[in-house]
Amino acid sequence: MTALRILLAQAKGGSYRFSPPLGLGYLASVLERQGHEIKILDCNLHKDYKKQIVDFQPDVVGLSVFCYNYHASKELSHFTRERLPNCKIISGGPQVTVRPFDMFADDMSDFIIRGEGEYVLKTLIETIQERNDRLEIKSVGYAREGRVHLNEMAQPINDLDSIPFPAVHLFDLKAYSASPQGFVTKRRPFFPMFTSRGCPYSCTFCTIHIFWGRKWRARSATNVVDEIEFLHYQHGVNEIHFQDDNFTLSRQRVLQICREIITRGLEIVWKCPQGVKVDTLDTQLLGLMADSGCYALSLGIESGNQQILDRLNKRLSLEEVARVVRWAKNVGIHTEGFFMLGNPGETRATILQTIKFSKEVDLDAAVFSVLTPFEGTPVFDEYKMKGYLPDLDYLKNWDASEVVINLPGLSSRELETLRRKAHFEFYFRPKIIWRTMTLVRNVYSLRSMIDAVQFIFKGGA
Length: 461
Fold this sequence. Notes:
The chain is α/β, with parallel strands linked by helices. It has 17 helices and 15 strands.
């Protein structure tokens, strides 16, 4: 079969934090093994992205669609249809999985893929090559004669070691921000990694299980460190950002990863900017993590009120948070806390408790966001039923700075005011100003810090 020219694109999103779109890297590596010519286009980095699409003349465009780049993805899709009418458009990503019918109602896609895409896309591309109209591929959706067909979901990929490493050579690592998440990176260039998928927990606000499933699946420690070695020696990567939602779920696996990094003498540093579950950490584990190069952890705390944590089904105590922050600081690991305002049962008093707790627990950094209920979660169902969501179409036009909820006694405007108050009170303290300034090591980290501060105080998270 004739090889295809396939463009994998991520439309512009509303954040200063740009990191290589790892999902597209995985898709590219699978398709390159099939002999196709692949180009990855991150529209956040290129003002001439439309010209690049036309110049490449793709047979297929694959779009990675999130709620925060939905409208930009729609514009990109329509532009492609207009300029390249014979090009097939395939959409995937979290927004597609949660709201698949939108892709056809807005004429954005010829095909969609729900959930994990690596091997589904490979099979779909083979079907397109063969010009086969029989579309019985699991996880694929398509429209025929005005009717949308959604095939049943494929089983999750259990053997994550079988997925080839991302196509790093298709990314310009120097073009990315010095700090995609958090204030700074220690070394450049950095590269993100996923080492596990899925989540067995049931936090009422979280959508992880919708895309990745509830079964936690993990790559082996050897496979993870093999990729670190590959990134370091073949591509000059000096820092790893683990993007897992549950990197530390298996204590034994993390211990093995750390020991393997040390045994192989890999001179890299790493952090977990996506947020780790606090109660999976202990003193021995944190110590070995630090010894292997870990210098920063983001902690999913969410609230400084225990009753609200219980309503969110976090299975976390505030005492555990305080202990883990203390342990991390003892081994030199920078700690950042993630907090949400506007949770079920929230009042102005509980938000003030959260602000107070964030300062008392002695975190090095904190990010305060206002809860955005996502479709498919218990919080979304509750807030929709109670009328706390004035505009149910916000998930097609959302960015990180937008407050979409109105609670009894807490309007969207007041929630925004309290978010700003939280950031101001946390950061405008002498010890935090000093700690933050000590992280500035070069012009890249200074620029990144300025971007981060502007974004946070604008209202982003």
